Amino acid sequence: MKDLYPSRQNHKPEIFKRKDPVIYTDRSKDGQAPITREQLNFYEENGFLQIENFFTEQEVSQMQKGIFELQDSSKDVTSNKVVREPQSDEIRSIFHVHQDDDYFKKVANDQRLLDIVNHLLGSDVYIHQSRINYKPGFTGKEFDWHSDFETWHVEDGMPRMRAVSLSIALSDNYTFNGPLMLIPGSHNYYVSCVGETPDDNYKESLQKQKLGVPDHENLSWLADHGGGISVPTGKAGSITLFESNTMHGSNGNITPYSRNNLFMVFNSVENQLVEPYSGGKKRPEFIAVREGAPTLTESK
Are 202 and 280 in contact (CB under 8 A)? Predict the structure, then answer.
Protein backbone atom coordinates (compact mmCIF):
# COMPACT_ATOMS: atom_id res chain seq x y z
CA MET A 1 0.00 0.00 0.00
CA LYS A 2 1.30 3.44 -0.96
CA ASP A 3 2.70 5.43 1.94
CA LEU A 4 0.70 8.66 1.94
CA TYR A 5 2.32 9.91 5.16
CA PRO A 6 6.04 9.08 5.06
CA SER A 7 8.03 9.78 8.21
CA ARG A 8 11.41 8.86 9.74
CA GLN A 9 12.78 8.32 6.24
CA ASN A 10 14.68 11.54 5.58
CA HIS A 11 17.39 13.50 7.36
CA LYS A 12 15.27 16.65 7.42
CA PRO A 13 11.77 17.10 8.89
CA GLU A 14 8.93 18.17 6.61
CA ILE A 15 5.37 19.35 7.04
CA PHE A 16 2.48 18.92 4.63
CA LYS A 17 -1.32 19.00 4.61
CA ARG A 18 -3.41 16.01 5.58
CA LYS A 19 -5.02 14.01 2.77
CA ASP A 20 -8.02 12.68 4.70
CA PRO A 21 -11.33 14.07 5.97
CA VAL A 22 -11.66 14.99 9.63
CA ILE A 23 -15.31 13.92 9.94
CA TYR A 24 -16.21 10.97 7.72
CA THR A 25 -19.99 11.03 8.03
CA ASP A 26 -21.64 13.36 5.50
CA ARG A 27 -22.13 16.71 7.24
CA SER A 28 -25.65 16.88 5.77
CA LYS A 29 -26.45 14.23 8.40
CA ASP A 30 -25.47 16.47 11.33
CA GLY A 31 -29.06 16.34 12.54
CA GLN A 32 -28.67 12.60 13.17
CA ALA A 33 -25.45 13.02 15.15
CA PRO A 34 -25.24 12.24 18.89
CA ILE A 35 -23.54 15.61 19.47
CA THR A 36 -24.52 19.08 18.31
CA ARG A 37 -23.64 20.76 15.02
CA GLU A 38 -21.61 23.30 17.02
CA GLN A 39 -19.62 20.52 18.64
CA LEU A 40 -18.99 18.88 15.27
CA ASN A 41 -17.83 22.22 13.86
CA PHE A 42 -15.47 22.71 16.79
CA TYR A 43 -14.00 19.22 16.39
CA GLU A 44 -13.56 19.61 12.65
CA GLU A 45 -11.86 22.99 12.99
CA ASN A 46 -9.70 22.36 16.05
CA GLY A 47 -9.08 18.62 15.99
CA PHE A 48 -10.48 17.97 19.46
CA LEU A 49 -13.59 18.35 21.57
CA GLN A 50 -14.12 18.30 25.32
CA ILE A 51 -17.50 17.32 26.76
CA GLU A 52 -17.79 18.07 30.46
CA ASN A 53 -19.80 15.97 32.93
CA PHE A 54 -20.14 13.17 30.40
CA PHE A 55 -20.10 10.52 33.11
CA THR A 56 -22.07 10.67 36.35
CA GLU A 57 -20.39 10.93 39.75
CA GLN A 58 -21.27 7.29 40.42
CA GLU A 59 -19.71 6.17 37.14
CA VAL A 60 -16.59 8.22 37.84
CA SER A 61 -16.31 6.71 41.31
CA GLN A 62 -16.51 3.20 39.85
CA MET A 63 -13.84 3.95 37.26
CA GLN A 64 -11.57 5.53 39.87
CA LYS A 65 -11.96 2.47 42.05
CA GLY A 66 -11.15 0.29 39.04
CA ILE A 67 -7.95 2.08 38.02
CA PHE A 68 -6.50 2.05 41.52
CA GLU A 69 -7.39 -1.60 42.06
CA LEU A 70 -5.50 -2.38 38.85
CA GLN A 71 -2.59 -0.22 39.98
CA ASP A 72 -2.39 -2.06 43.32
CA SER A 73 -2.67 -5.51 41.75
CA SER A 74 0.05 -4.64 39.19
CA LYS A 75 2.69 -3.33 41.60
CA ASP A 76 4.79 -6.49 41.51
CA VAL A 77 3.77 -7.65 38.04
CA THR A 78 6.51 -8.13 35.45
CA SER A 79 4.82 -7.54 32.12
CA ASN A 80 5.36 -5.27 29.13
CA LYS A 81 1.73 -4.24 29.53
CA VAL A 82 2.69 -2.47 32.76
CA VAL A 83 4.90 0.50 31.86
CA ARG A 84 6.91 2.12 34.63
CA GLU A 85 8.52 5.52 34.87
CA PRO A 86 12.06 5.59 33.42
CA GLN A 87 13.71 6.46 36.73
CA SER A 88 11.50 4.63 39.23
CA ASP A 89 9.20 1.64 39.69
CA GLU A 90 6.09 3.81 39.71
CA ILE A 91 3.48 2.69 37.22
CA ARG A 92 3.10 5.09 34.29
CA SER A 93 0.56 3.16 32.19
CA ILE A 94 -1.31 -0.15 32.10
CA PHE A 95 -2.21 -1.31 28.57
CA HIS A 96 -4.93 -3.45 27.00
CA VAL A 97 -7.46 -2.86 29.75
CA HIS A 98 -10.41 -3.08 27.34
CA GLN A 99 -9.67 -6.80 26.98
CA ASP A 100 -7.92 -7.75 30.20
CA ASP A 101 -10.41 -6.24 32.65
CA ASP A 102 -14.12 -7.07 32.59
CA TYR A 103 -15.19 -3.71 33.99
CA PHE A 104 -13.19 -1.62 31.53
CA LYS A 105 -14.41 -3.86 28.71
CA LYS A 106 -17.89 -2.58 29.55
CA VAL A 107 -16.66 1.02 29.56
CA ALA A 108 -15.11 0.51 26.12
CA ASN A 109 -18.49 -0.70 24.86
CA ASP A 110 -20.45 2.23 26.32
CA GLN A 111 -23.00 3.00 23.63
CA ARG A 112 -22.84 6.74 24.31
CA LEU A 113 -19.16 6.77 23.36
CA LEU A 114 -19.58 4.45 20.41
CA ASP A 115 -22.37 6.54 18.92
CA ILE A 116 -20.04 9.56 18.84
CA VAL A 117 -16.98 7.83 17.38
CA ASN A 118 -19.12 5.92 14.84
CA HIS A 119 -20.42 9.25 13.59
CA LEU A 120 -17.01 10.92 13.47
CA LEU A 121 -15.42 7.99 11.63
CA GLY A 122 -18.42 7.11 9.47
CA SER A 123 -18.18 3.38 10.10
CA ASP A 124 -18.09 0.63 12.67
CA VAL A 125 -15.09 0.78 14.97
CA TYR A 126 -12.79 -1.33 17.10
CA ILE A 127 -10.33 -0.54 19.87
CA HIS A 128 -6.85 -0.03 18.43
CA GLN A 129 -5.29 0.61 21.84
CA SER A 130 -6.36 1.16 25.44
CA ARG A 131 -4.50 2.10 28.57
CA ILE A 132 -4.76 3.77 31.94
CA ASN A 133 -2.35 6.66 32.41
CA TYR A 134 -1.26 7.57 35.93
CA LYS A 135 0.37 10.88 36.69
CA PRO A 136 0.79 11.04 40.46
CA GLY A 137 1.34 14.22 42.39
CA PHE A 138 4.95 15.45 42.76
CA THR A 139 6.53 12.74 40.56
CA GLY A 140 4.37 12.32 37.41
CA LYS A 141 6.52 12.73 34.30
CA GLU A 142 5.77 14.55 31.07
CA PHE A 143 4.57 13.17 27.73
CA ASP A 144 6.49 14.78 24.87
CA TRP A 145 4.75 16.54 21.97
CA HIS A 146 3.63 14.08 19.29
CA SER A 147 0.95 13.11 16.81
CA ASP A 148 -0.40 9.66 17.69
CA PHE A 149 -1.04 8.96 14.03
CA GLU A 150 2.64 9.41 13.15
CA THR A 151 3.55 6.60 15.53
CA TRP A 152 0.63 4.36 14.61
CA HIS A 153 1.36 4.86 10.91
CA VAL A 154 5.10 4.27 11.06
CA GLU A 155 5.27 1.60 13.76
CA ASP A 156 1.88 -0.13 13.41
CA GLY A 157 0.90 0.35 9.76
CA MET A 158 -2.26 2.42 10.24
CA PRO A 159 -2.87 3.62 6.66
CA ARG A 160 -5.11 6.68 7.02
CA MET A 161 -6.14 9.33 9.52
CA ARG A 162 -9.39 7.62 10.45
CA ALA A 163 -9.08 7.08 14.19
CA VAL A 164 -10.16 9.00 17.27
CA SER A 165 -8.43 9.13 20.65
CA LEU A 166 -10.57 9.41 23.75
CA SER A 167 -9.35 10.51 27.17
CA ILE A 168 -11.70 10.05 30.14
CA ALA A 169 -10.62 12.31 33.01
CA LEU A 170 -10.55 10.33 36.25
CA SER A 171 -9.19 13.15 38.35
CA ASP A 172 -9.80 16.87 38.16
CA ASN A 173 -7.74 18.57 35.45
CA TYR A 174 -6.18 21.88 36.39
CA THR A 175 -3.86 24.05 34.34
CA PHE A 176 -1.03 23.15 36.73
CA ASN A 177 -1.14 19.37 37.33
CA GLY A 178 0.21 18.23 33.98
CA PRO A 179 -3.01 18.19 31.94
CA LEU A 180 -3.38 17.31 28.29
CA MET A 181 -2.24 20.14 26.00
CA LEU A 182 -3.33 20.30 22.35
CA ILE A 183 -2.48 22.54 19.40
CA PRO A 184 -5.76 23.58 17.72
CA GLY A 185 -5.74 23.05 13.97
CA SER A 186 -2.59 20.93 14.03
CA HIS A 187 -4.56 17.91 12.81
CA ASN A 188 -4.67 19.55 9.37
CA TYR A 189 -0.89 19.17 8.94
CA TYR A 190 1.39 16.17 9.15
CA VAL A 191 4.91 16.54 10.50
CA SER A 192 7.29 14.05 8.92
CA CYS A 193 9.94 13.36 11.57
CA VAL A 194 13.54 12.17 11.39
CA GLY A 195 15.26 9.13 12.86
CA GLU A 196 15.34 5.44 11.99
CA THR A 197 12.94 3.28 14.01
CA PRO A 198 14.60 0.29 15.72
CA ASP A 199 12.70 -2.89 16.50
CA ASP A 200 11.03 -2.91 19.92
CA ASN A 201 11.19 0.88 20.06
CA TYR A 202 8.02 0.80 22.16
CA LYS A 203 9.93 -0.49 25.18
CA GLU A 204 11.68 2.87 25.41
CA SER A 205 9.12 5.17 23.78
CA LEU A 206 6.32 4.26 26.20
CA GLN A 207 8.52 5.55 29.01
CA LYS A 208 9.88 8.56 27.11
CA GLN A 209 9.26 9.18 23.44
CA LYS A 210 12.27 10.22 21.38
CA LEU A 211 11.29 9.21 17.83
CA GLY A 212 8.19 10.70 16.23
CA VAL A 213 8.66 13.90 18.23
CA PRO A 214 8.31 16.96 15.97
CA ASP A 215 11.18 19.37 15.52
CA HIS A 216 10.98 22.74 17.27
CA GLU A 217 10.59 24.76 14.08
CA ASN A 218 7.54 22.88 12.80
CA LEU A 219 6.03 22.63 16.26
CA SER A 220 6.35 26.40 16.65
CA TRP A 221 4.83 26.90 13.21
CA LEU A 222 1.82 24.76 14.14
CA ALA A 223 1.23 26.73 17.33
CA ASP A 224 1.71 30.10 15.64
CA HIS A 225 -0.54 29.31 12.68
CA GLY A 226 -3.19 27.53 14.70
CA GLY A 227 -4.78 28.63 17.93
CA GLY A 228 -1.72 28.51 20.13
CA ILE A 229 -2.01 25.83 22.79
CA SER A 230 -5.28 24.71 24.37
CA VAL A 231 -5.51 23.12 27.81
CA PRO A 232 -8.89 21.48 28.45
CA THR A 233 -9.49 21.57 32.19
CA GLY A 234 -12.46 20.38 34.20
CA LYS A 235 -13.80 17.90 36.67
CA ALA A 236 -13.33 14.15 36.61
CA GLY A 237 -15.94 12.59 34.34
CA SER A 238 -15.30 14.87 31.39
CA ILE A 239 -14.10 13.39 28.12
CA THR A 240 -11.77 14.78 25.48
CA LEU A 241 -11.98 13.41 21.95
CA PHE A 242 -9.07 14.26 19.70
CA GLU A 243 -8.31 13.42 16.10
CA SER A 244 -5.51 10.92 15.56
CA ASN A 245 -3.18 13.52 14.04
CA THR A 246 -3.73 16.32 16.57
CA MET A 247 -0.43 17.40 18.12
CA HIS A 248 -0.52 17.00 21.90
CA GLY A 249 1.58 16.47 25.00
CA SER A 250 1.64 17.21 28.71
CA ASN A 251 3.99 18.65 31.33
CA GLY A 252 5.26 16.85 34.38
CA ASN A 253 3.23 17.08 37.57
CA ILE A 254 5.02 18.64 40.56
CA THR A 255 1.78 19.55 42.36
CA PRO A 256 0.12 17.47 45.10
CA TYR A 257 -2.80 16.71 42.74
CA SER A 258 -2.68 13.56 40.64
CA ARG A 259 -3.90 13.48 37.04
CA ASN A 260 -5.18 10.10 35.88
CA ASN A 261 -7.14 9.07 32.82
CA LEU A 262 -8.50 6.16 30.84
CA PHE A 263 -7.29 6.41 27.24
CA MET A 264 -8.86 4.50 24.36
CA VAL A 265 -8.31 4.70 20.61
CA PHE A 266 -11.17 3.88 18.26
CA ASN A 267 -10.14 2.96 14.72
CA SER A 268 -12.44 2.49 11.74
CA VAL A 269 -12.89 -1.11 10.64
CA GLU A 270 -12.18 0.27 7.15
CA ASN A 271 -8.73 1.42 8.31
CA GLN A 272 -7.26 -1.94 9.33
CA LEU A 273 -3.53 -2.06 9.98
CA VAL A 274 -1.10 -3.21 7.31
CA GLU A 275 2.63 -3.88 7.62
CA PRO A 276 4.46 -1.15 9.59
CA TYR A 277 5.61 1.60 7.23
CA SER A 278 8.95 1.61 9.03
CA GLY A 279 9.64 -1.80 7.53
CA GLY A 280 10.25 -3.14 11.01
CA LYS A 281 8.44 -5.85 12.92
CA LYS A 282 4.94 -5.39 14.27
CA ARG A 283 4.40 -4.08 17.75
CA PRO A 284 2.65 -6.41 20.23
CA GLU A 285 -1.13 -6.84 20.14
CA PHE A 286 -1.56 -5.12 23.50
CA ILE A 287 -0.28 -1.89 21.90
CA ALA A 288 -1.74 -2.23 18.43
CA VAL A 289 -4.73 -4.47 17.76
CA ARG A 290 -4.35 -5.68 14.21
CA GLU A 291 -6.63 -6.79 11.39
CA GLY A 292 -9.55 -9.01 12.17
CA ALA A 293 -10.45 -7.13 15.35
CA PRO A 294 -14.15 -7.48 16.22
CA THR A 295 -16.65 -4.75 15.57
CA LEU A 296 -17.95 -3.29 18.80
CA THR A 297 -21.26 -2.01 17.52
CA GLU A 298 -23.25 -1.52 14.38
CA SER A 299 -22.91 1.90 12.76
CA LYS A 300 -25.97 4.10 12.69
Answer: no
